[in-house]
Predict the structure.
Amino acid sequence: MKKLIIINGTMGVGKTTVSKLLLEKLKPGVWLDGDWCWYMNPFIVSEENKEMVLDNICYLLRAYLRNSGYEYIYFCWVIHEEGIFDQLLKRLKDLEFELHKFTLICSEEALIARIQKDIENQIRNSGDISRSTARLKLYDNMDTLKIDVSDLTAEQTAEKIKNVLLDKASLKKY
């Protein structure tokens, strides 16, 4: 059965890196990043754009969930509200798949260090620190499996997720 693996967490926590590693560890798979649908200039968060982005994400997820060539569909995104999960999954409810929701969490200190490294590499800017740390608490009560990555490498995190995915007792079907 297809496996939809959603990896969320605040900006800079390591979702992209972990997703790329998982793509190499468990095959056949595909990796999608919700941020790809937000690359627009000017960047405007309007109701119209939020609906369009959600439509585009669901279109891609549906296509890969239906495609016989892929077993693992990795999707990472900054999902900071349970309602975003609900909106996504409601649009996929007619498809059969195993759902796995992971949240990468970390201490504020670890997050600042990660983002600072990204700033030095010109991937992020200094304003990203306050935007990201402000969202840390939003993930505490989400209905996801939490992985504290404060002291883990991306490789260790990907290995933990791989182990959960391969443990048949942990599967949740939708």
The chain has a mean pLDDT of 93.
